[in-house]
Amino acid sequence: MRRFLSAQVISNPFDVFRFCVSFGNWRIGVFQRCEPRFGTDRVCHEQRKGCGVRQEIWKWETFDGYVLDFALDRMREGIRVAIVTLVNVDGSSPYQRGAQMAVTETGNWVGHLSGGCIERAIVAEALLAFDEGHSRKVRYGRGSPYMDIRLPCGSAIELVIDIGAPIDDLDRVDRRLRRRLRADLHVPDPQEPSRDDMVGPFLRHYWPKKRVFIAGIGPVAVQLGRLARTGGFEVLLASPDKATREAMAKAGITSRAISRTNNGNMSWIDPWTAAVLAFHDHEWETDLLPALLESDAFYIGVLGSRRTHQTRIENLASAGFGSSSINRINGPAGLIPQTRGATEIAVSILAEIVQAKPHLYDTQGLLSVVTPPARTARHSKRRAPKQTAWA
Which residues contact 194 (CB under 8 A, 6 or more apart)? Predict the structure, then answer.
């Protein structure tokens, strides 16, 4: 034996205790492997006592839907990574076609493809794919050959486990998304039969991360920023109030100061950005709101009573804005009427933003089928439009 048998109890935010056993070169976890599995997990906290796994703080969020940055990070360390893509849903599912996981050859993973009932089975299947040296398509749930793995909803899903995704393709997608441009990634078809016509190869479409731009002062702006960030949005704040900016900074949110004479440039706002004006002094809207109406924002929300909003509409009409532009404004902002208190108002606004998701998400989705010889179309080759930074 190359190493003595050792055992350690490990705690983390998700599994209160895990029993980790190291024997020779093998590490076995009673519920899961000793390698890190959750975004905030620290595994084998005291290396001198435990499994010989190097101590590290795991920085990746397992429940994030975007997994390519994790895959790239591991590939650059020389670790093989499988990209697992949901290509078919037979029945209902909490995830749509195109949802992904990334699984390393050491058993680390990020992303989810179910409510949490089959992720460990998917990891095991990916490890088998690495051992056998080829990608595969698998089915879980109704009609699956795995009799012991069932989805509680009674549905079925089909997955492509791609162990050969080129790092250059993943890097190209990631770089385009960082420039807030759409990108596509080729997903192969392992040539195993599917129960319906959703056969590949496929293109996985990636859209820029949804963003919330907040201009305002006070608790509604702060609570909305915090909630949006927790909800997976990028968040930017513009405020003339130092206390508001400092509160946002503590939450890790980028902010900048504005004044009545310098409200900043709005040309950077793209179709994946929602904008909210959270001022109780509506004089601040005088220049900001017309600029937002000329932007590509998929959502525009403003605070204020219905009477205030009617006055706002009249002023915009007098300034020459047509009804199609004015109707883009959600005022008073929020999905839930007559909410009170900063937190409830922020929840209501965020719900309305989620409901008003960018139309491209609905019209094109995350996954499409391509017909050979389109196999070479691994990524979008559109010319990148000129981008204006947030000034």
Answer: 88, 137, 158
The contacts of residue 323 (CB under 8 Å, 6+ apart) are 317
Radius of gyration of the chain from its Cα atoms, rounded to whole angstroms: 24
Strands 234-239 and 211-216: what pairing? parallel
**Locate tokens 């009573």: which residue?**
305
Token reading at 154: 């009674």
**Nearest CA to 221 among 170, 305, 280?**
280
Q: Is there a contact between 47 and 53 (Cβ–Cβ < 8 Å)?
A: yes
Distance CA 82, CA 161 (A): 6
Residues sharing a CB contact under 8 Å with residue 90, sequence separation 6 or more, in sequence order: 141, 142, 143, 155, 156, 157, 158, 195, 196
Asked whether the beta carbons of 110 and 93 are under 8 A apart, the reply is no
Structure tokens at 168: 């250059």
Q: Which DSSP state fits 217?
A: -
DSSP one-letter code for 379: S
Angle at 54 between CA 49 and CA 57, to 5 degrees: 105
Report the side by side order of strands in the sheet with 273-278: 254-257, 234-239, 211-216, 273-278, 299-302, 329-330
Higher pLDDT, residue 371 or 297: 297
First to last CA, the chain: 62
Q: Considering only CA atoms, which of 332, 174, 354, 180 is closest in space to residue 267?
A: 180
pLDDT for the residue 124: 93
Cα distance between residue 313 and residue 304, in whole Å:
12
CATH superfamily of 211-357: NAD(P)-binding Rossmann-like Domain (3.40.50.720)
pLDDT above 60 (res 111): yes
Q: How far is CA 137 from CA 82, 96, 147, 156, 193, in A?
A: 12, 17, 17, 13, 9
> What residue spans define the domains of the chain?
1-59, 60-207+368-391, 211-357
Listed residue (287, 311, 301, 288) closest to 353, CA to CA = 301
pLDDT tens sequence across 17-74: 233 333 333 333 333 333 333 333 333 333 333 433 333 334 556 667 789 999 999 9
